C-alpha cells in the first residue's frame, strides 16, 4: 500500500471525483488511502486515472485492490513476505559467516548491506510505533515477541476474515491484530 501511494506521488496522480474535488492519492496517509482505494464507488475512476497516467500504475492498482479486498489473499501475501524475509536473513547470516571465516568476500557486499539496512529501518519503525502505542514493555525482546505474535495472529485472522465488518477488516490490515 505504501509503495503504491509513493508511486502515485511520483506520477502526480490526481483523481477527479464528482464536481471539482481532486484527490491526490500520493498525499494521503495509508489509513485514509485504504478507504478511498477500496471503495467500490471509486474503483472505476481510480483505475481510469491510473491507466491514463501510466499503464503499470493501473496494473498495480488492480493487483493491490485484488489482494486487499480478499482476506485470504492478503494473508497469503503477508505469509509469503515473512518467508522471504526469513530466507533472506538466513542468507545474510551465511554470507556473514563466510566472510568472517574466510576473510574473503565473494559476494556483492553492498547489495547485502543495502538489504540489511532496509530490514533494520523497517524493523525499527515497527518497534518504535509499537513502543509509542504501548509503553508497558520492559525490554526489546518483549516488543519483538509481541510483533511476531501479532503477525502470526494477523495471518490467521485474515485467512478466515469472512465474518469481519469492513472497518474491523481495514483496521487489521493497517495495524495487525495487536
Describe this structure in words.
By secondary structure, this protein is mainly alpha-helical. It folds into 2 domains: 2-68, no CATH class; 71-82 and 108-175, no CATH class. Helix content is 74%, strand content 3%. It has 8 helices and 2 strands. It has helices at residues 2-11, 30-38, 43-53, 55-68, 71-102, 109-133, 140-159, 166-175, and strands at residues 14-16, 22-24. The chain has a two-stranded antiparallel sheet. Strand 1 (14-16) and strand 2 form a beta hairpin. Helix 5 (71-102) runs antiparallel to helix 7. The longest helix has 32 residues, at 71-102. The chain is globular and about 65 Å long. The mean pLDDT is 86.
Q: Decide which structural class fits the backbone.
A: mainly alpha
The percentage of residues in β strands lies in under 5%
For the largest beta sheet, what order do the strands appear in spatially? Answer: 1-2
The count of β-strands is: 2
Amino acid at each position: 500500500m505504501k509503495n503504491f501511494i509513493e508511486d502515485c506521488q511520483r506520477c502526480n496522480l490526481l483523481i477527479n471525483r464528482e464536481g471539482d474535488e481532486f484527490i491526490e492519492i500520493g498525499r494521503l496517509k495509508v489509513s485514509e488511502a485504504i478507504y478511498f482505494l477500496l471503495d467500490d464507488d471509486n474503483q472505476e475512476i481510480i483505475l481510469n486515472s491510473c491507466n491514463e497516467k501510466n499503464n503499470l500504475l493501473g496494473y498495480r492498482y488492480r493487483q493491490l485492490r485484488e489482494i486487499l479486498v480478499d482476506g485470504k489473499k492478503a494473508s497469503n501475501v503477508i505469509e509469503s513476505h515473512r518467508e522471504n524475509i526469513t530466507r533472506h536473513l538466513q542468507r545474510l547470516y551465511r554470507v556473514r559467516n563466510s566472510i568472517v571465516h574466510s576473510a574473503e568476500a565473494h559476494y556483492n557486499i553492498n547489495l547485502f548491506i543495502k538489504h540489511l539496512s532496509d530490514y533494520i529501518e523497517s524493523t525499527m519503525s515497527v518497534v518504535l510505533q509499537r513502543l509509542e502505542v504501548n509503553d508497558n514493555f520492559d525490554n526489546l525482546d518483549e516488543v519483538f515477541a509481541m510483533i511476531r505474535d501479532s503477525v502470526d495472529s494477523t495471518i490467521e485472522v485474515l485467512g478466515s476474515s469472512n465474518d469481519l465488518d469492513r472497518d474491523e477488516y481495514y483496521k487489521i490490515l493497517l495495524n495487525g491484530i495487536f
